[in-house]
Write a structure and sequence with these properties.
By secondary structure, this protein is α/β, with parallel strands linked by helices. Helix content is 39%, strand content 22%. The protein has a 7-stranded mixed beta sheet with strand order 15-18-19-14-13-20-21, sandwiched between helices. Strand 9, helix 6 and strand 10 form a beta-alpha-beta unit.
Amino acid sequence: MTQTPAFDNYVGGAWVGSEDRTENVNPSDLSDVIGRYAQADADTVAEAVQAARHAWPEWAEAGPLARSQVLSRASGQLAARSAELGDLLARELGKPIAEAVAEVNRAAQIFDFFAGEALRNAGTVIDSVRPGLIAEMHHDPMGVVGVITPWNFPIAIPAWKIAPALAFGNAVVFKPAGITPGCAWELTRILADAGLPDGVLNLVMGSGAVTGAAMTGSSAVDALSFTGSQAVGRGLAAACVAQGIKVQCEMGGKNPLVVLGDADLDHAVECALNGAFFSNGQRCTASSRLIVTADVHDEFVDRLLARVGAMTVGDARDPGSAVGPISSRGQLEGNLAYVRTAREEGGEVHGGERLRLATDGHYMSPALVTGTTNAMTINREEVFGPVAAVIRVADYDEALATANDTEFGLSSGICTGSLAHAADFKRRSQAGMVMVNAPTAGVDPHVSFGGRKGSSYGAREQGSAAREFYTQHKTTYTDPR
């Protein structure tokens, strides 16, 4: 019998084991154990924070070229190993293989972009209002940055947090999601092999209740970036504020896609299918509310149902699978509970059934719920699975009001042939990201990412906006006389 491999935490440049380990199980096949991953306790987290604190000054002074070169080498390794790492990602998360490989390549692009940003950390020189003085504004690193990432993008989201943190001269303590430690471990090893000095990046795997709490409770952490649920994010933000830790939270969405009568319906269906069901619907930018005007509602629903019904559910590593398994048993049960609630509240559910396939896994058929109102639970709370609801509205004005009637504000979209409606929606949509004739999910690595209202707290992520969180301003005055 082949022994299940064991994977350790990474602290101060050394791989550190633990008696407490959890099994990383393939959701496509529950008999497939990927590995046994060490769980960090509070003492291990404290050691990681101190290692980062000790390593940070040298990394901050290493200069932009040295930092750029490390990130560039990491980008190259991610790209070269995209097929291998994509297979791991599909195996541990259940994301369809083509999307898994694409996510690894996106992580490579992110590291490549921030390799350039390390060289573009420009300040400003401006004339002082006081004669003879020279005023300068600089962007200095924060110091030690904690990074807490979710399971749905287990390599891309860590990349878009860790890459800018390192580019601007910070040291990092990284806690990945408990159910997807494999990609985090490989990313850490890639960065270590790329020449990152010991202690600049530390990996602490474990539960949020233990590992995450130890990070937010440390006075030696200067900033913390989190992506996850709204409930956890709010509690984490409060804990950080109490400690004086600069904090950034991305906390999900309940994203609307508006379809108007003048839209290209075939294209609108493709946007809805992509936004709602790709990546198994496990995206914070997923199109979970499809708001359709009455004049095309029935035709749109018929076309979308035909496409959804044709989606093949299966093993994530099978290229023929359009939808893989749900990430975990708890997530699957939660999805099915939302489907039951939608039916009980009067919605008509198409699909949304638990599936028994050749291998024992967390499978469900994608669900489209029709006949819903915006007040139903299915349209108020984030489901985070291959589940979308359709809301019939009279016209554009009602569609816009319905789209904005949510406590979230991450992403929104509209399908229309009207430039006037497109322009008005871009201006009045209460979301941080607005798509016109495009899926609500899917963003570029070089532009800012983030939402409004209950979706986000703190500075934006990605692109040039990332510098605002991972640096702190310093203004200096010089009298050259």
